[in-house]
Design goal:
The protein is built from 17 helices and 19 strands. The protein has 518 residues and is an alpha/beta fold. It is elongated, with a radius of gyration of 29 Å.
Length: 518
């Protein structure tokens, strides 16, 4: 409540929120209570000309809600007459326009003190340029807050067991643990010149590119002699000289051939001191652990040495908790760190396991942005995506921190091409790590598995369980990839279903797009 020595009264309520719904009306209600309390004070304690001047001021200015972090409502919603928004606080000229229109120009005989204006400029314009109040600031702050190491994770890092089966939901830090452990071992090997060899295997190629670059960057490019990263498919090809097929049965057959080749020692094969296998839930059959045991030095011993198996225990994924392999002693991570609470509350709808999962921090994060204006065709869909990307860029979010996620590779390629036509340069997940260019990422949900992005724009996600049997798997993968800020573009019905308690529609024949194997 600003009160000058000339009986000038200016009620102001400041809100740090980034959206108007709910917050603006709450602030207006509080302003009304404050004014009523002030009126009671004036009636009880003042009289004569002073009281008349104060009554006039209370009547003249209804009060203002200042939301310097919140863009002005657009579209069909008219700008609230008593609101001061992000656009009004961009610079001195913008603030002066608001001041002259809403305050100084409201018929009064006594001019406002210039010092009062300067104070407000310093408070709302100066601070807006001095502190993180933009969308990018919130995302960066949330990202830093989620980078943590728990006692549970530290225990895994320091554990000396020869073989570890590490389970946990997406976001619990499995891949982070793998990276830290590999770097720890590699640095020791390089310092001691031990000639130890480390093999890191994953299922997804974009994750392979990310891991390769991470190790190369942290070891100054000196990885070839110590750390070797491969996809599971390329490893099988190296051992059998044949590409595994697309079906589970064909893949199991290829694994059996690789195991047989190692047992018979039909060729000279590199063996390793340490082996790390990520994304085990995507591997087929029950012989792949034998494959890695045979690749480990000391494979002829009763207990093979130094192997880590990491996998997600969500029952909607390939390797369910009932799988016989998972009856082995394992270390279970049940705490999620790599999502904000807003993202976690949505993604946990698609996780099912005997063991419950919990959030390991108090970072609420930005609310999910629901866009129910999904166009009927991809051409207009790309334009819809472009609007969101441009808004993020205006808020100083780095292009490479934005990932547009699609149902499959075919849609990814179409959206990527149309975005380029509309002036949005973009890249896929592999290019992100290979070139390190600051471009928006466009990728299919499956190919982004194992990676994460600060901002995810999820385009036209499936939500019908009946027409797509693996809808929960796909939604779980997509949502858990989001680190800080999630935007979902779908239909009004899609918004309603996804926001429901179940998160999917169990009985519907809505049209959908079939998901390709990426």
């Amino acid at each position: 409540m600003l009160l000058s020595n000339a009986y000038i009264l200016l009620p102001i309520k400041v809100k740090a929120a980034k959206k108007t719904p709910g917050q603006y009306s709450k602030a207006k209600a509080q302003l009304q209570k404050d004014k009523q309390a002030l009126q009671v004070f004036v009636d009880e304690n003042l009289s004569g000309k002073i009281k008349r001047d104060m009554d006039s001021e209370i009547y003249r200015y209804p009060g203002f809600v200042v939301m310097p972090n919140c863009p002005c409502p657009n579209g069909s919603v008219a700008k609230p007459a008593t609101g001061v928004f992000l656009e009004d606080c961009e610079d001195v000229n913008a603030f002066s326009k608001w001041w002259n229109t809403k305050v100084a120009g409201v018929g009064r005989d006594t001019p406002f003190d210039q010092k009062l204006f300067e104070y407000l400029v310093m408070r709302f314009v100066g601070m807006a340029h001095s502190f993180h109040c933009t969308l990018s600031g919130s995302i960066e702050d949330d990202g830093k807050a989620l980078e943590m190491c728990t006692k549970e994770q530290l225990r895994v890092l320091l554990d000396l067991k020869s073989q570890q089966w590490i389970t946990g939901p997406a976001g619990s830090g499995k891949t982070w643990l793998l990276i830290k452990k590999v770097l720890m071992l590699a640095e020791n090997a390089l310092r001691g010149n031990t000639e130890e060899k480390i093999l890191v295997v994953c299922y997804n190629r974009p994750l392979f590119v990310m891991l390769s670059k991470t190790f190369a960057d942290n070891l100054n490019g000196n990885t070839q002699g110590v750390v070797r990263v491969k996809t599971f498919e390329s490893l099988l090809y190296e051992l059998t000289r044949s590409k595994p097929g697309n079906s589970d049965k064909e893949k199991e057959k290829c694994i059996s051939q690789a195991v047989e080749s190692l047992e018979n020692e039909t060729q000279l094969v590199q063996r390793y001191d340490y082996i790390f296998v990520d994304e085990c839930q995507d591997l087929c059959g029950d012989k792949w652990p034998i494959l890695f045991e045979k690749l480990c030095k000391g494979h002829d011993e009763v207990t093979p040495r130094n192997i880590w198996f990491l996998y997600d225990t969500n029952q909607y994924l390939r390797l369910s908790p009932q799988h016989p392999l998972l009856k082995r002693a394992s270390l279970s991570l049940s705490t999620v760190f790599r999502n904000t609470k807003m993202v976690f509350d949505q993604s946990k709808k698609y996780f099912s396991n005997g063991q419950s999962i919990v959030l390991g921090h108090h970072v609420c994060g930005l609310e999910i942005k629901w866009d129910d204006s999904l166009p009927l065709d991809l051409h207009n869909g790309a334009k819809c995506i472009k609007r969101h990307v441009e808004e993020l860029k205006r808020n100083k979010v780095h292009d490479k921190d934005i990932c547009i996620m699609t149902q499959n590779v075919t849609i990814r390629d179409d959206i990527s091409r149309m975005l380029k036509v509309n002036g949005i340069e973009n890249q896929n997940a592999e290019e992100l790590f290979e070139t390190c260019e600051d471009k928006v990422v466009v990728e299919s949900i499956r190919r982004f598995k194992g990676l994460e992005s600060k901002v995810v724009i999820l385009y036209n996600p499936p939500y019908s369980e009946e027409v797509m049997w693996n809808v929960k798997e796909l939604l779980y993968t997509a949502l858990s990839r989001c680190f800080c800020y999630l935007i979902i573009i779908t239909t009004p019905n899609g918004c309603s279903v996804l926001q429901s308690q179940e998160g999917v529609m169990e009985h519907t024949w809505d049209e959908f797009m079939e998901i390709d194997d990426d």
